[in-house]
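Build the 3D complex.
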Amino acid sequence: MEYFELAIGCIFINNILLAQFLGNCPFLGTSKKMETAVGMSMAVVFVLVMAGIITWVVDTYLLKALGVEYLKTVSFILVIASLVQFVEMFLKKSIPALYAGLGIFLPLITTNCAVMGACLLNISKEYGFMKTLVSSFAYAIGFGLALILFAGVRERINLARVPKPLQDTSIALVTAGVIALTFMSFKGMV
Amino acid sequence: MAQSLAKEFTKGLWAEVPPFRLVLGLCPVLAVTTKVENGLGMGLATTFVLVFSNLLVSLLRNVIPSKVRIACYIVIIATFVTIVELGMQAFTYELFLKLGIFIPLIVVNCVVLGRAEAFASKNTPILSVADGLGIGIGFTLSLGALAAVRELLGAGTITIWNGATIFEMGASFQPFAFMVQAPGAFVALGLMLAGMNLIGSK
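Done.
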């Protein structure tokens, strides 16, 4: 039950995109088409769960054990960058079908602050291993949910006649605001 | 030389001002702009990292092999971010607490990596510093402007530094709390972008 509450909280109430403002660059960049949004979401789920586990292990058994927590930023970004590279090579060799789907989105994840941000949040809240696993997965699902919803709305907006100064990024941001407003209504649920 | 130096510096202030024109590095822009002091603090921290990472990348541009350049840039940036993190923890602890997770996240701010890759890796150190300074100040000013709009409408005040309020709405003003909450950030940024497009198109 505790894990269920945590998951609901991470998906809806503390949604990583709309409440914590992490990962907004890919949110706007890959949401023009449904196809790219789905690809990006899957890639994030894949990498975020692995990154969450590995950074937790690094933090607990390496940084804290040696008393060098101030190296967190440097070591986490290195872990994430090499993880992304490794996953890319692994998928290319062994699961070409999945690689074709995620392909171009994987390298982009290195600079996706949702991944790094979720890892840092887990550490700062001092979660244990299981909680880290659950919350990483839930954050990633929340990211995918918001991104796919947003892409759907954005595809419709492309058909509408938007005033010239508001076109493209500007109207997208206002739309994101409205979606964030709907997510706010989940507050107080858990 | 002096002319191109001025050009690289000023382009960051209007023509390529990061969150609006380049639409990069949005996460801190949206998250910390509930108060002007937070926005300015975040902007200055980013400027510091931007200037020094640009300088170092530019100095090492002939040494770094192009195949592993991104990894090298990230290590350089992460080093300066750690310096900022420790410095802020020592000297401006309250601000450090407010900005929280967004200080280490400067590492993955696409503006910083973007300037290293697009500018500093191809230009001389002096020009790169000018570019970093210009983009950094443009970033700081846009954060300040967005934060001013949000704080003024959402809380009715403008605080510049350490809680010093320089402007306060009259007692009859009803704060529009929407603006300092999450959805208000998106809407305010979207409308400011529309305003800039309107001015720019004339």
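Chain B touches chain A through 43 residues (CB under 8 Å).
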